[in-house]
Structure formats: C-alpha cells, structure tokens
Amino acid sequence: GINAEYMGVLDRPCGIRGLSQIFKSMDRDHSGFLDIAEFAAAVHDYGLPISSQELVLLLEALDCDGDGHINYDELLLRIRGSLPARRKKAIERAFSKFDVDGDGTISARELRGRFRVVMNPVVVKGKRTANEVLGDFQAAFDANRDGIVTYEEFEEYYTGVSTLVANDKHFELMLQNAWLS
Questions:
Q1: How would residue 73 be classed by pLDDT, with cut points 50, 70 and 90?
Q2: Are 74 and 64 contacting, i.e. CB atoms less than 8 angstroms apart?
Q3: How distant, in Å, are the alpha carbons of 47, 61, 68, 116 from that of 144?
Q4: Strands, E, within 33-179: which ranges?
Q5: Is the pTM of this model over 0.70?
C-alpha cells in the first residue's frame, strides 16, 4: 500500500504548486534535491512497481546535470514537455526584436534595460518583488556572466514561465507586456 504521509500529498493541489509540494515531501533531509535513497523511498511509498535497475535508469533520466541527484528544476524540466508551437513563435518574435543582426545573441544589458519587470505575473500577483524577479532574470539570461544572451537561454527562461500560464493567449499577452518596445 501507499504510505499515509504520501496519501495526504496526493490530496494537495495539482499542477506546478502540487508538484512542488510532493517534491518537498520526498526530500526528507530538506537538502533541495533527492538522492538515490530518497528517490527509492518515494517510489516505494507511492507503490510504483519498478526494479532497482529501472529505478537507477529513471533517476539518471531525471538527473539533467549528471550529479547523481534530482533537484526540483530538473524534475520540472523533464516532465513539463515541449513548448507548444504557438508559444514558441511568440518567444521567437520577442527575441527577434532585440537580435537586430540576426546572429542569435543579444546584449544582456540591453535586454535587462527593456524588461518591464512590473508586468511579470508573479510581481503583479504580489508573490515576489520586482528586485527578486530582476535577480532571477539576470541569472536566467546570463548565468555565465558573459554579457551575451542566446536565443536558447531566452527560450529556456520563457519555457519555465510558460508552465505558470494557463492559456496561449495569456502567455502571448504576458510576453508582449514584459518588454518595452
């Protein structure tokens, strides 16, 4: 049977928030990631009939950076699926506004200067401050601090944001409102 602790988790909200709560309940040592023992315990507690070999293969498939652990971002990345074509096109249009020479890169400084953080959904809802979102923005778009933002970095950021927006029209509107023309 399924462990009673996890049954309560199954009654929690669905979606990204629910997934976050489930992940936190599996992270028994509160380290921010699941090691093989925590992952195995969760698989067992949920009553999933997989072998030890399959467990290792599943952990390896979810472990994007190959460090032997699964953090929440890795889990989310692997299960969220691909970006819908309509949203991908909206991201491409936004990026092309800045990539004037068409080389697939733009200056992180210019990008940051045109980002309307006050229109970000989490700022609008009061869940995060504008400064917190700007910090995330900088880390997402220029993690290696080279001052250059590639299309891939831009798309990855908005693929994550996409999971928080229910429909395509709202996503497109949010993307348009995020940038100064």
A1: confident
A2: yes
A3: 41, 25, 23, 23
A4: 33-34, 70-71, 105-107, 148-150
A5: no
